[in-house]
Design brief:
Blueprint: H1 5-21, H2 30-42, E1 48-54, E2 75-80, H3 87-99, E3 103-106, H4 112-133, E4 143-148, H5 155-165, H6 170-173, E5 192-197, E6 202-206, H7 218-227, H8 237-249, H9 258-261, H10 278-294, H11 302-319, H12 329-343
Parallel strand pairs: 1-2, 1-4, 2-3, 4-6
Antiparallel strand pairs: 5-6
Helix pairs in contact: 1-7, 1-8, 4-5, 8-11, 8-12, 10-11
Bound molecules: guanosine-5'-triphosphate and magnesium ion.
Magnesium ion binds near residues 155, 156 and 188.
Length: about 350
């Protein structure tokens, strides 16, 4: 996308600087190094490997370490957070992976039905695998499934949900464990096992998220930062917000928000500091619609895109109740609110990676 290029470059540069500085706050700390080694040692010992990717970036969220292990029928790619991605693009990505002979499944880890469907599929896959590799009485042996992926793609949320709905006995249900799930990357520090089925037993191993020590590609850096794989504390939040707005402006998601552009202020003039309130979200959508519908420039032209984003930021600061003449912290607060709404799916559904067959056109 031509109109997003300068924002990709700016965000990419700021991520690359963090990577090059190798300062104490750099993402590849001793935890990640040790975890990376521990995961590599365990991969040959488990029955199946589930690589969790972010459905918004099916290629950019690839877990590079798996390249060292031959791809086989033991690997499953899970496109998680499908609720945040474009539904039609996820279908296209599934077809793409199928053509490459990858076993792929799209899920929303916050949705019970989606996880139940995956569990059925997993149990079928395990039966098939055991039939093809062992004699029939080994079908009843314990199976271990290792969940790997880059940070923040939802490995722990996925493992928790499988554990919660898994077919284990009532007595075992009483001892349900929980992996910590947070919006911040790098939360999981150890490999933890969760039982997800009995007779035959299936255990799932949640693991810490791993990123390569160095990421050189601007576009890859930008996508990882926007979707939350790289800690926000390492990045200028306004770079993230501008990049998101350039994506939104290049899509047609905003066309659904016309009805919010004519809505009256329905919070009685009271100041809403909580940006997640429905009325604030609707006001944000309405304001974005108005700016975009009135825009007469060319969105393929970077200068025009910059101008539009500046106008949108001015309007949105008012909606978020963040003063427009202040910089520094207030600028960060405004950007963080906008990025939070994007990450929770309240400002549309975007798949940021494009299929190899449609890229570069
Ligand atoms: N909308 C949506 N959010 C999700 C989904 N799965 C996980 N999340 C959210 O994504 C964030 C990260 O989830 P985690 O499960 O902690 O991610 P992780 O891969 O374990 O992260 P690390 O332990 O840091 O590697 C949390 O805010 C989750 O609530 C999903 O399917 N849909
Ligand atoms: Mg985790």
């Amino acid at each position: 996308m031509v109109g997003t290029a300068s924002f990709v470059k700016s965000l990419g540069n700021s991520v690359k600087k963090v990577s090059e500085s190798k300062s104490s706050s750099w993402w590849y700390n001793h935890h990640m190094r040790a975890a990376s080694r521990a995961i590599s040692e365990r991969i040959p010992l488990v029955d199946l490997v589930v690589e969790v990717r972010d459905a918004r970036i099916p290629i950019s969220s690839e877990y590079r370490q798996l390249i060292n292990f031959p791809s086989s029928s033991r690997n499953i790619i899970v496109l998680n957070k499908m609720d945040l991605a474009s539904r039609s693009k996820t279908k296209e990505w599934m077809a793409y992976f199928k053509e490459l002979n990858y076993t792929t499944f799209a899920v929303n880890s916050h949705n019970k039905d989606s996880i139940k469907e995956f569990l059925n599929f997993l149990q079928g896959k395990i039966r098939e695998l055991k039939r093809s590799t062992h004699s029939s009485n080994n079908i009843h042996t314990t199976t271990t499934v290792m969940v790997v992926g880059i940070p923040n793609v939802g490995k722990s949320a996925f493992s928790n949900s499988l554990h919660q709905i898994g077919r284990i006995t009532a007595a075992e249900k009483g001892k349900l464990k929980h992996a910590t799930v947070t919006p911040h990357p790098g939360e999981t520090k150890n490999i933890t096992s969760f039982k997800i089925a009995s007779n035959p037993n299936i255990y799932i191993l949640d693991t810490p998220g791993i990123l390569p020590p160095e990421i050189l590609d601007d576009e890859l850096c930008s996508k990882l930062a926007l979707t939350g794989a790289i800690a926000d504390s390492l990045i200028d939040q306004s770079d993230l917000a501008n990049y998101f707005l350039s994506i939104l402006n290049s899509s047609d998601e905003y066309t659904k928000w016309e009805k919010f552009s004519t809505m009256e202020d329905d919070h009685g003039g009271s100041i809403m500091n909580d940006h997640t309130q429905d009325c604030v979200v609707q006001a944000v959508r309405g304001a974005l619609f108005q700016e975009l519908a009135a825009f007469k420039g060319n969105l393929e032209d970077e200068k025009d895109m910059v101008q539009l984003i500046e106008a949108q930021c001015t309007t949105l600061r008012t909606v978020f109740n963040v003063s427009s003449d202040s910089f520094g912290d207030d600028n960060g607060i405004f950007s963080a609110k906008l990025v939070n709404l994007y990450r929770t799916g309240r400002l549309g559904h975007y798949t940021l990676d494009c299929l190899p067959t449609t890229c570069g056109s």
